[in-house]
Every structure is written in structure tokens, then in C-alpha cells.
Write a structure and sequence with these properties.
Layout (H helix, E strand, L loop, with lengths): L2 H23 L7 E5 L5 H9 L4 E4 L2 H10 L6 E4 L8 H5 L4 E5 L2 H14 L3 E6 L16 H10 L3 E7 L8 H18 L5 E3 L6 H6 L4 E4 L1 H4 L8
Parallel strand pairs: 1-2, 1-8, 2-3, 3-4, 4-5, 5-6, 6-7
Function: Pyridoxal 5'-phosphate (PLP)-binding protein, which is involved in PLP homeostasis.
InterPro entries: Ala_racemase_N, PLP-binding_barrel, PyrdxlP_homeostasis
Organism: Nonomuraea endophytica
Amino acid sequence: MTRKAEIGERLGEVEERIAQACRAAGRDPAEVTLIAITKTYPADDVRILAELGVRDVGENRDQEAAGKAAECADLPLTWHFVGQLQTNKVRSVVGYADVIHSVDRERLARAISKEAVRAGREVTCLVQVALDDDPERGGALAADVPALADVIAAAENVRLGGVMAVAPLGEDPGKAFGRLREIALALQSRHPGAVMVSAGMSGDLSEAVANGATHVRVGTALLGRRKPFVR
């Protein structure tokens, strides 16, 4: 089987899983955007995904993403940065990312705004919400989300898109995403345009869709088990 045939088969399976989850939740599958997470995979796979109709691609490490985005600059893609982001990487990430999912502190939001102004770009930012107490996974505490969202919404060249979260390890993802849904709805009452809910990966996308996810981030189910990342 060619790589394109393999990815095409996997893509069909993922799209059917999303469709099934939407049917179970009484939702239209058109409401859910698939983001293909291509970390550790080559630009050739990004090109195959684009040929198969995928338009949203996600990466979580700038040192890998920057070169890949440049190599694929001719493709009609929306690039999503989904990993934890340090301020010293903001200039690079703003150069290619259309959406940054991992904004979890005001200093980072202001840095993104500064670099977006400098680059003459508008970047959509999501508030990453911590659904557990693990600081290594990033995310703003639920109580801090409204203030952070206000900062993003007021920043130049930045658009508040909504929220993102990762289900906590060892917890029922449905319950965790239920909490995210409440946070998302509260945010939308303050900022009606912030309708994006980025939640769900290969193993828990059904629970995410059931709780209102508008974007699911899928890598393994699309491209296979990843090779270890070598620094």
C-alpha cells in the first residue's frame, strides 16, 4: 500500500468516527473541523493530506513546525500551533501559525500581539484551559480564563477564538470535557464570537464532540504511531 493510500484509508476512518460522534450528539458533522497533527512526520505527509482535502494542520514544536510550514507554503492550509509556547519562540511561531491554541498567560498574549503587529498578521488565539493540576501540561486555571480572554480580545492583531484543553490523564474525558463546555459557554456569554472549542484527540474525540468540540486534533489515528522526537 502506498503512503497516500494508507493515509487516505486512515482519514476515511477518522472522518467516519467524527460523523458517528456527531450523529450520537445530534450535531452536524460540518460543525467539527479536523486538525491533522503532523508532528514528527515529514512535509511529504502534509502534502498528501492536502491532496486528500485536509486544510487544517497542527504542530507542537516550533523547531520542527517552522521549516515544515515554509516547505509547504504553497499549499492552501491553515496552520495551528498546539504546543506549549515560550515567549522566545513567539516571533517565529507568529510567522506561520494562523491559530495558536496554547495561550495560557497574559504575558504570552501580549507577546503574540506585539509580534503579530510587527509581522502585519492577524493571529487567532485560544485560551488553553487547565482541566487538572499538572503545571507541566500548561493551561490557565478556570478562574483566570475570563481575565485572560479579555486581554486577548483587546490586543492588537489578535482575535479571541475560544478555548482549548487536553483531557487529564486517568480521568473520564467526558467529565473533563463537560467542564470545558461550561467554561466555553461562560466565555461566549462575554465574547459571543469566541465559539471555537479545541478538544479531543485520537483516543477521546467522541467524548469531545459530545461536549461541543468544534475542532479535534488527531495525529496517531491519521498518520500512525510516532517516532520518538530527537532534539
